[in-house]
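Technical note accompanying the year-one report. For the benefit of new consortium partners, we illustrate the data format agreed upon in the data management plan: each record pairs a sequence with a C-alpha cell string. No post-processing was applied to the example shown here.
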Amino acid sequence: MASNESSQDIQYPALSPRFWHGMPSWIWYRELAKNGFKVSPSKLHIALGVSFFTPFSDLLGFTQHCVFGSIIARTELAGPPLFVLGHWRSGTTLLHELLDLDDTYASPTTFQCFAPRQFLLAEDLVTKYGGWLIPNKRPMDNMKAGWALPQEDEFALMNLGAPTPYLRLMFPCHEFPFQNTLSSDGFTAEELKKWKVLFDWFLRALTYKSKKPLILKSPPHTGRLGILKSMYPDAKFVHIVRDPRKIFPSTMKLWKSLDCVQALQTGDYEDRLKQFVLNSLTTMYTSFERDRIGMSKDQLIDVHYEDLAKDPVNVVRQIYEQLGLANFDSIEPLVQNKKQQDKEYKTNRFGVDTAEEAEIMTAWKGYATQYGYA
C-alpha cells in the first residue's frame, strides 16, 4: 500500500531553511516588491525569517567572492558534464542518485544548491552540525532528503538570480514567471546571457570544490538541450520518460507540496497550476525534440522509468555502454545494493478519472506517442 504521507505530515523544524535563505537580499526584496509584498498572514514568519537572515547571507556571499572569486573564474571543468533530463516526476531523482554512486563524478548537493554563493565557506560546518534543520524525507514522495544528497541545480540558479520558473514558488497565487525559459529559444537575449554566465559560474564553483566531472539534474534543462549542447559540446545526456498518466498527478502533488512548505502565499490557484503543468511539458518537449536532431547515440540515451524501477542494474549498464562511460564494473555492486535498499520504498499511487485522462493524453499526445504510452 502506498504511503499517504503528505507535506503537512513532514515535520519541519521552526528554523528549517527555505529555498530563499541563500538568495541575495537585492533579489529577495526585488521579488517581494514585484509581487506587492502580498504575503499571506500564515506565511509571514517565513518572510520575516528570510528578511532577517539575508544580511548574514550577503556577508557570507561577499566573503566567499573575495576569497574564491578569482579562483573560480580560472577553474576549468574537470570533464564533460553528464546531464539527467526529463519532466518532473518522471524518475529523474532516482536516476540521478543511481548515477551519483559513481565516485568519479560529483553532483551538486542540497546545500550547494540552496546556498550557491556561500557553500565554499559554510557547507562543511552546516552539514556537520545542521542536519536537524532539514527533514529526512521529501514532502512530495517520501524519498530521502539531506544536505549532502544530490539536488537540482535549478535551485542554485534561482538563488543566483537567473531567470527561472522556480520563482513561482514565492508567490504561487500570482502569474508564474519565466515560463519562456523552459525552451532553448524562449529566452530573450539578455536573459540568455545572464543565465549562461550564472550557470557556468556555478559549475566552475562545484568543480573547484570537487575536482571531478559533474552530474547535473534539473527538469527545466530538458527544454534547454540546445543551449547546453552549445555551451558544453562534449556533454552526455540521459533522458528519462514515464507514463503521462503518472506524471501529471504526481507533478501536481509536487508543486502543491513545495508550496505548502516554501511559498509566501496560500490561496486557490488550482486552475493556474494545472495549466502550467500541462503547458510546461509541451513547451519543454517541443524544444527537446527539435534540439536532439542530429545527436549521436553516444551522446544521448532515452530510458523508461518503468524499466529503471524494475531493473536498475541493466538500465544503468546500458547507459554506460551506449554513452561510452567508464567504471560501470566498480559501481555495479553499489547499484545492486541500492536496489535492495529501495525494496521497501513504495511509490505514491496516483489515479486520474476518465475525463482527466482524456485531457492529459490529448494535451500530451506527442509525448505519449513518441515514447510508447499512447
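Partners are asked to follow this layout when depositing records. The chain has 15 helices and four strands.
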